Amino acid sequence: MLRNTAGQRNIVLDLNMVKEITEEGVRMGLLAHRLCSALGGDFILVNVHPQVFQTLQILHLDQHFTILKNLIDAEDMIFGNELQRDLIGG
Questions:
Q1: What is the share, in percent, of the chain residues with pLDDT greater than 90?
Q2: Architecture, CATH, for domain 11-88
Q3: Angle of CA points 78, 39, 33, to nearest 5°
């Protein structure tokens, strides 16, 4: 179970060592996504192996999760989103 006690609202999950995913892994990803969304944050997957990406596509989760190439892209996205939230008062 994921619990946010540090006030963070973004999670970047680096999957560079993951070659396949299980049903439990998908459930944890959905839970993490829901928790981040509830706090106005982002749940981002990076360095996704082609086989894992194919599984996510089959489950139509590639449209649900934010999937980026690498950590730098994720940092840039989070930074931009945080700036936008600050500008609109969120």
A1: 76
A2: 2-Layer Sandwich (3.30)
A3: 70
